[in-house]
Amino acid sequence: MPELPEVESVRQGLDQTIIGKTIQAIEVRWPKIIQSKSIDEFKMKLVNQTIQQIKRRGKFLLIYLDKDVLISHLRMEGKYFLKSKEERLDKHTHVIFRFNDQMELRYNDVRKFGRMQLVPIGEEYQTKSIIKLGPEPIEGQLFTNDMKQFLMNKTKAIKTILLDQTLVAGIGNIYADEILFDAGIHPTRPGKTLSTFEIEVLRQSIINIMQEAIKYGGSTIRTYHNMLGEDGTYQDYHKVYGKKNESCSRCKTMIEKIQLNGRGTHYCPHCQK
User: Is 263 marked active-site?
Assistant: First the structure.
C-alpha cells in the first residue's frame, strides 16, 4: 500500500504535470471507486473546472479545482498516469479525466480499492476520512508533549498505534518497522510504557525516516511506481523491513519477523529489546 512518502511522490508528479489543465470530460469505468450518490453529478461538477494545485494530507491526495477538491485515496494499488488520448488504455484503467489539450489523466487500480470523493473547497479537512488524522510527521506539527499525552493510557502495541493514523498521519507497515528500529523500540511495547525520552527519540525517528523516504521517492516493494512510471529507491535503505533472517546492520543479530495484529512485523531482537 502506498504510504505517505509514495503518495507525496505522486503528488509531486501531479504538481509537475497537470496544474492548469481544464477537465473536458470524465469516464468512470468502475463506479465503486467514486464516493458519490450520483456518478453523473460527480462528472457534471468536474467538467470545465481547471486544476489549480495539488496538496496531500496523510495518505490522501487533495486535487484543488476552481470550486471543488477531489480527494483521492490510492489504497493498495492506485496509480495515476498522464497519457495522450491516442495511447492504448490499460485494462486496469478505471477513471479517465480528459483534458482540453488532448491529454488524459488515467487512474489505474489492479485491486479497485482506491476511492475518490468530490467536496466543495473549505470542506476537505472536515470529511470523515481526514478529520480524524493526526499531525503530519514534520517539525512544527509533531510534538513530544502531544505524543506523551496521547500515549499515556494506551495499552496497544506501539506499532499498532503508529498504524492507526491518529497519533501521526501517513505511517504504514513499512515505515512503522523502520521507525521503530531507528528508535530502538520493540514493536510490541504498549504505548503507555514509553518514557518521555523514548517518545522524543520516537518523534525524531518518525520525522527523519519519513523525510528520508520522501527524498528517495518512497519504496517500491512490489508494484508501486510514481506518476512517470519510475520506482522509488528507499527500499535500498531499509534496515529491517523485508530483512527476515538477514544480519542486523548494527549488531549482526538476525532480523526476526512476527505477526502483530495481522501485520508482518520486522525487528532486531537485540537492538529493540
Answer: yes
